[in-house]
Structures are given as structure tokens and as C-alpha cells.
Amino acid sequence: MGDVSACPYGVDCRFNHDVASFLQQKPPDLPGSCPYLAYERSCPYGLACRFAGSHDKPLGISGVEGNAGDAPPNEVNSLSKEAQKLLWKNKKSFPKADAQLQALGILGKTKHPTDKEITLSTNQNETKVKTDDNEIIQEELEKSSDVCRNRSAAAGIVMTSPPVKRARIMHDDKSSEEKADSNIDELIHLDSDSADHGGLGLSNFQDEKEIKLSKREKKIVDFKRKLVLAPLTTVGNLPFRRVCKKFGADITCGEMAMCSNLLQGQASEWALLRRHQVEDVFGIQLCGSHPDALARTAELIEKECTVDFIDINLGCPIDIVVSKGAGSCLLTKPSRLEQIVRATSAVIENPLTLKVRTGYFEGKNCAHSLIPEMHKWGATAVTVHGRTRQQRYSKLADWGYIYNCAAQAPKDLQVIGNGDIFSFTDWNYHLDNAESKLSTCMIARGALIKPWIFTEIKDQRHWDITSGERLNILRDFVHYGLEHWGSDSKGVETTRRFLLESLSHAHRYIPVGLLEVIPQQLNWRPPSYVGRNDLETLMASDSAADWVRISEMLLGPVPSGFMFTPKHKSNAYEKAENG
Fold first, then answer.
1. Which of 40, 42, 255, 578 is spaced 20 to 30 A from 374 at the CA atom?
2. Ranges of the chain with pLDDT below 50
3. pLDDT tens across 30-87, in order?
4. Quick check: 51 and 33 in contact, CB under 8 A?
5. Full 3-state SS string of 364-399
């Protein structure tokens, strides 16, 4: 350890081994101790760590426990190198997803040569199933063609073309049966959409001896009156979720991840799925526009990750997402939405939840008509954000419509309300009023502005938090960020950028002691004010330059040429002296 001359590449190594020159150009160490010391392991960043002076060994070279870039301790859900290589080469197989997509009649030509291929013959009484390892030949339902025609005639259906055979595939071994097991209830619904799927559905088969109906048993996540942190793009990162867990959040969800990027094995996208050990109930939110991508991604996540539920984003209003047919755009395509939910729910053991907006166009709400169907398709919970895509985040959330959606939902479907919750009084009102049949409420921007909202709800009080306590919250975030993103210069600057994104929301908080009317409402835009001390005044500033000054209190001076632009609005920072 610490012997730089021990490099196995010798003179052919592309990296510089001159420790003295490296230390000369390295930025000064930051005050405090290395965040990895708490785990009794060697710092994986060694000399590059910005806290190298606190290392036990003079050189602080990485130990055997980990290397720079590895998942930090107490974090899970990292993609294995073997799986990543298969995704890069487009050779990863998805047996459950492809079997279900075949059963639904929506699987086209697969690009995965090792995927299961199912060939159904209409002229012979055999079904050939080609798998990765073997070829299984089994008999179809006897005289299925005649059965289909007879039952269609009895139902008054005139068949103008030969029916597509839908045989149940039997397997000798249990593991193969589990792979091919799909929810037959999902196939029954094809009867009403036979024109879309190009064949006769299965609702005419009433004899259980011909087709045995079996429902997939799923795990259950009870959302009843739980404090749920919403999936928040960019700002809902793992360090922020740890802060919220510290203040009492019960259920957390990772940032929205794009299925296309996950299936390509992009490390940056898979990093969004990481889970800390304190997140005892944790979900992952996926975004995609096609059933094959979502079903395959869900199957892959269940195999590679540890999650309690999987959520599909049906509400993202961002143009780049909507233009690809994902997010809130799916609310305008109910047929494709049905295929996505049916295919995804059938391939996972964990519960499938959906997050929707009230509709796409303002004044044309449609969520109330979709929610009863979503339960039939396989969803166990639906979160309704009380705005349309066209509204984005303008105007107040329509809670009356959210109550209406909950009233029309099936008894077994949990409906969660979302929008503008900013105090325990908001929480109480939306759950306890006579109109509400909601299971719980999801908290989003309210937690970004004041993460201690979870404590306020549990304690049923308005917390007049001091500026010193708020600064300690930022210190916790920075500590968690250095653990998650790294303690070298790159990790410090990544932590800084996410801290600044957090401050771009947090500055909107108005201390309780300064309010004339309690509680503060989320849509308030107060004028500039002077706080009870200089730090409180600084934290209330809407200037990006002041946010940078706060970050320098925690992470040292910014590097030369540093620039910052919040992602959620056009409020930019270029140089601190311009503030």
C-alpha cells in the first residue's frame, strides 16, 4: 500500500506517478474529516481525497475494501459489470418480458438473439418454443381452431380470417413455468381489443379445463397515511432522501430514470437507482413510451436491484420527454398505456404504481376515466398530481378533482393525492375532510423548500426553525453528498452543484416567526425581507451568487471559471462578484 512504483503497467502506464507534482497542483484540503472514516475502511480516493490530511496513513492510499467509483458503503442497486457488458452488446435476454409481450401480441422482431422465440403453427397441433438452452416441443390445445370457430359462432362473431392460436405453454420444470407464467386475466382483456391485437381474445373460453386462470401474487406496500416523498428529478437524489428520512419520511422513491438509457447500460442512469440502507421502503420510477422497453427494464431491475415497488411516470411535463411519447403524453394514448401497464405488471413480483396528472390539456381532465381501468391492468396504487401537463406547476392543484378520482377508484386501488402540501394543516385537511377517500398524500416541492415538513406532520406543529439549524441540515446534505459522489475534487464539485440546486428551492422558505399569517402557502412569492440575523437574510436571497457563498461556507471556494444555472428556472450565476 502506498508504493506508487508498484504499478503493473510500469513505463507504459498512461498516468502520472509523480506524487510531489500532484500534491502541488491539488487544491487545498477542506476542513473536517474524510466521510469514509466512519466506516472503518480505507478512503477509495487516497491522495485525491480533499480530506487526505485526516487519513490514518500519511498517503491515504486506497485499501482493499473499494476503489474510486465503486458504490459507497451502505448503498445498494449497482449494475453488475457482467450485466452491463451484455447490455452494451445488446445480448441481454429478458425471458419474462418477452414471453408476456408475445402473449399480449405486441412483441415485434427482437434484437436480442438469446431471447425466447415462440412460433405458433395454425396448421399443426404442435407449438415450438425456442429458448436459450433448449427447444421444447409440446402440443397445443386439441382442435383449438375448431373450438375458436364454434365459440365465436355461439357468441355471434363472424370470423373473416383464421383465428390466431393462443396456446398455454406447459413446462416440465418449475423454473421454466415461472418464466412463462403470465397473468391470464391480462389476455382476457384482449377480447375487447381484438382488432388492435389482430386476433380473438380468450374471454370466450369459459371452461377452466381448457385454460386454467391463475393470478400472480404480488407483494403489497401499504401507503395508508404514510409520509411519502415524491420522486423528484435532479433534486430528489440519494443524499437529499437521507435528509428527509432523518426528518421522518416513511416511503422514498428514486429519481425518474429513462428506460432507454437503463437498457443501454449507462452508468449515470443506473446511479439514479441507488438506495441507502436507511430507506426501508424504497421505489424506483421509470419513464418510457413503449411496453417492450418498460417491461424489459422492470424485469432487469427486479433481477439486479432491491426495491419495494416500481412506479411508472405518466405525468412528466418536460418537452423532451413528452416529444418521445413518454410521461404525460401517455395520457393521450390509452391503448398504449394499457399495454405498458399490463406488460410491466405481469413480469414483476413487486407492486406496480403509477403517477399521473389530471390530464394533458387544461380543462380536459381524463384521469378519472383511466383510474378504474388501471387497477384491472395491474396497478396497485395511483398518485394523482392535481394539475394538467399544460399547467405544469402554475395555478393551484385541483384537489376537488383528486377527491373525485379517489371516489371512483376500486376499493383495492390505493389513490394518493399530490400537489401544494406545505404544512401539517394541509396534510390533515386533505386526508380527513368528508370528501376525501385518499390513502395518503405525496409531498414533493414542499419537502424541497423545507425537508423538516415530515417532522411537522408527525409532531402536528409549525416548527420555527432557526438559521443555525437550517445550516446544520445543509451540512448533513454535504456530508451525505461526499459519501455518495466522492470526496475527491470531482465529488466535491458534484456535491456543490446539487447543493446549489437544493438552495434554489430552499430560499423560498419564510421563517414562522416572521409570518403574519400561518402557515405559509406554497404559491407565495414574498418580497425581499431582512431576517432575524445575517445568516437568515442570506438564506432568503434569490440570488445565485448568495447561494454560492453558502456553498463556500461548507465546501470551500469555488474553482476558477465556475458557473451555475438552476435547471428549474432561468436564474443563472456566472461570477460571485457579480452578485
1. 255
2. 1-2, 58-66, 109-215, 570-579
3. 988 888 887 767 788 888 899 988 887 544 444 434 455 566 668 999 999 999 999 9
4. yes
5. CECHHHHHHHHHHHCCCEEEEEEEECCCCCCCCCCH
Please give the Cα distance from 53 to 34 (Å, whole number). 9
Burial class of residue 114 in the structure, from the number of CB atoms within 10 Å of its CB (0-12 exposed, 13-18 middle, 19+ buried): middle
Cell readout for 30 is 477542506
Q: At 35, list the grid cell.
A: 466521510
Angle at 404 between CA 402 and CA 405, to 5 degrees: 65
In sequence order, the 6+-apart residues with CB closer than 8 A to the CB of 368 are 401, 404, 405, 408
pLDDT, residue 45, reads 87
For residues 498, 484, 277, 454, the Cα torsion angle rounded to the nearest 10 degrees is -20
Give 350-398 pLDDT, tens digit per residue: 999 999 999 999 889 999 999 999 999 999 999 999 999 988 887 889 9
Exposure of 495 in the CB half-sphere (CA atoms within 13 A): 27
Q: In sequence order, which ranges of 26-157 are alpha helices (DSSP H)?
A: 81-88, 95-104, 144-154
How far is residue 119's CA from residue 136's CA, in Å, rounded to a whole number? 11
145 φ/ψ angles, rounded to the nearest 5 degrees: -65, -45
Q: What is the CA radius of gyration of the chain?
A: 27
Q: Choosing from 316, 329, 405, 441, which is the catalytic residue?
A: 316
pTM of the model: 0.78
**488 near 29, Cβ under 8 Å?**
no
pLDDT score, position 405: 95
Helix axis angle for 467-485 and 489-506, nearest 10°, is: 140
C-alpha 537/C-alpha 561 separation (Å) is 27
Is 429 in contact with 457 (CB distance < 8 Å)?
no
DSSP string, 245-267: HHTT--BEEPPPEEHHHHHTT-H
pLDDT score for 108: 56
The pLDDT, as a whole number, for residue 36 is 84
Q: CB-based burial of residue 134 (10 Å sphere; 0-12 exposed, 13-18 middle, 19+ buried)? A: exposed
Contact yes or no for 457/9 (Cβ under 8 A): no
Shortest CA distance to 342 belongs to which of 214, 189, 200?
189
- What pLDDT score does 567 carry? 78
Cell of 449: 423548500
Task: Give Cα separations from 118 to 138, 173, 369 (angstroms).
Answer: 12, 18, 35
Told to judge if 316 belongs to the known catalytic residues of this protein, a careful annotator would answer: yes
- 404 C-beta neighbours (distance < 10 Å), count: 19
Give the H/E segment covering residue 344. Answer: helix 334-347
C-alpha dist (Å) from residue 150 to 41, 163, 205, 410: 71, 12, 11, 35
Name which of 364, 369, 360, 361 is nearest 330 in CA terms.
Answer: 360
What whole-number distance in Å separates Cα of residue 360 and Cα of residue 485?
36
CA-to-CA separations, 537 to 65, 249, 540, 541, in angstroms, rounded: 44, 28, 5, 7
Cβ distance 51 to 29 under 8 Å?
Answer: yes
* In contact, 259 and 287? CB cutoff 8 Å: yes
Other Cβ atoms within 10 Å of 459 Cβ, number: 12
